[in-house]
Amino acid sequence: MSTGKKLTLYIDEELIQRVKEFAHQEGVSVSELVGNYFTAITADAPPDLDGISPEIQALVGAASPDVPPDGRSLAREQRARHKASGSNPED
Length: 91
Prior knowledge:
Layout: H1 13-26, H2 30-42, H3 54-57, H4 72-85
């Protein structure tokens, strides 16, 4: 994972625990989940979908302030990329 800048968020403790468990099960860090979500909701143009799995393509445009994304498909795609590159998702 590339180095970034620290961001402090205030979130309900129960939600934090659920997110940590989810991230662990998916093999990604909480920072990756948050970063992926922020990237998706701030994208100016739709991404180039060539080579992207249908599950991930289905998420394009799904991010809404009213409906937070499930994140599972995105997390699986992220984990698959880490496995393909041989890097550790917790790095």
